[in-house]
Amino acid sequence: MEKQQDDAAAAAAAAAAAASKMMITKGNGCIHNQSSKSRRIQIPASWASLMIFALFLTVWTPQIKQSRAWVMVERNYMVIKYRKSRSMFPDNAQKALEPVLLASDMSSAEVELDENMLDADDESSNMITAYNKSLVRYRGRVSYDGAYFSGFQIQEGRKDARTIQGTLEEVLQERFQNPALRVVGAGRTDTGVSARGQAFHFDLTIPDHLALQRRENEGQPRLEYTMNRMLPTDEICVWNVGPAPIVSVTTEEDTFGTPVMMTRQYNWNAMLSATHKLYSYRICVGPAMDPIHRFQRWHVPADSTPTNTTTLAALLEMFEGYHDFRAFAGAVQQTEKKRKRQINTMRTIYSCRLIDESERYDRDGYYRIDILLKGALYKMIRNMVGTAIDVSRGRVLDEAMFVKLLQNEKDGSSQLGRKDNKSKPAPPEGLTLERVFYGDNDF
């Protein structure tokens, strides 16, 4: 009996530590993971959420039986996998799930996002983030030197890897004595990639929020000051930390044949609320580069095949527009095989320009590539830069093959993939996430 009680207590503690993660994607009128064959819904394995979700399942029992569904537990999550057409869970299933999110005291229905999985248009419009009055969402900006970190996201199986997310969570968990507190970033940067205007959010309980406001009203240091005192300031710093706005969305819904304007509230989300991202990649094509810039700039070898910057600028502008970037993305085929579904590799680039920085740094051959886009695939920007520089140097690929990769045509038979692009990705040191843009200009 005591062992059963201990097991139950351990399960409850594990559910709390799961930090209110719920993985649901919505698209084309369904709640699913966009696969045409296999889908999964994941819900934290807390007793309240399981009991309420069981009521939801009773409504869909016939459909679930037909879809050969099965239930399992993965790392404190109840996972429901099923096979069915895209019409299994219609739109009203989203509304039926919203009480589950609130009753189980979850911070929101957070979507566990993988940037190389998402369609650019789906990142904000087709994801569920239900507003929860029991928690207060905070947001902030973070700048960091990527040379000291193994990327932004915590890496499972690598406890020794220093990450931005892990570092921020350690500070916030210590500050609020809450081991379940989690940080969500606007995007995942690779090892060695830096950021000036990365964004993140986290949730505080009502008592912690009120205590924080009371301390600040009394003139005590603000949260961002406390966080920066606890962070390694020569490697990472935060700014603009404060409560996030509640997002209200008004839509027209049909109620018994009468159109009614309905307003729903959602949590502001660092990833889903983003409208654009600005990346920059710095290079040196001259004979010598200042060693101080070795972690922020790629020194392209100035050998017998120098970089033609006129050609490079023209190639970069060809990236602008809506293209299939399958040949410029990393690990697409491996991920498709693992997830058993095809990845949407269509992306929109609003601007891709080459900026001369030689006069600014008083050194020949200094350039910066500015790329403004909605969202990027895994290693997409580094592959774009590496390929364009190879072509401008007359190495590995010619311009005709570059155009073919960008148009993604393989004799009309199949898509071109990363294996058809022989260029290597540009090193991570030259890449910087300059800014993540949102609808409100105050952040």
Record keyword descriptors for this entry.
443 residues; alpha+beta; Gyrase A, domain 2; Alpha-Beta Plaits; ten-stranded mixed beta sheet; three-stranded antiparallel beta sheet; 13 helices; 17 strands; 26% strand
Write the SSE topology.
Elements: H1 2-17, E1 25-27, E2 30-32, E3 39-44, H2 47-59, H3 61-66, E4 70-74, E5 77-82, H4 92-103, H5 122-125, E6 135-144, H6 164-176, E7 184-185, E8 194-205, H7 206-217, H8 223-230, E9 236-243, E10 246-255, E11 258-267, E12 276-284, E13 298-299, H9 309-318, E14 321-324, H10 332-339, E15 346-356, H11 358-361, E16 366-373, H12 380-392, H13 399-407, E17 431-437
Parallel strand pairs: 8-17, 12-13
Antiparallel strand pairs: 1-2, 3-5, 4-5, 6-8, 6-9, 7-8, 10-11, 12-16, 12-17, 14-15, 15-16
Kindly describe this structure.
The chain is of the alpha+beta class and 443 residues long. It has three domains: 2-106, Gyrase A, domain 2; 117-274, Alpha-Beta Plaits (2-Layer Sandwich), CATH 3.30.70.580; 276-437, Alpha-Beta Plaits, CATH 3.30.70. 29% of the residues lie in helices and 26% in strands. It has 13 helices and 17 strands. It has helices spanning 2-17, 47-59, 61-66, 92-103, 122-125, 164-176, 206-217, 223-230, 309-318, 332-339, 358-361, 380-392, 399-407, and strands at 25-27, 30-32, 39-44, 70-74, 77-82, 135-144, 184-185, 194-205, 236-243, 246-255, 258-267, 276-284, 298-299, 321-324, 346-356, 366-373, 431-437. The strands form four sheets. Strands 6, 7, 8, 9, 12, 13, 14, 15, 16 and 17 form a ten-stranded mixed sheet that branches. The chain has a three-stranded antiparallel sheet with strand order 3-5-4, with no helix packed on it. It has a two-stranded antiparallel sheet with strand order 1-2. β10 (246-255) and β11 (258-267) form a beta hairpin. The radius of gyration is 24 Å and the shape is globular. The protein starts with a helix and ends in a 6-residue tail after the last strand.
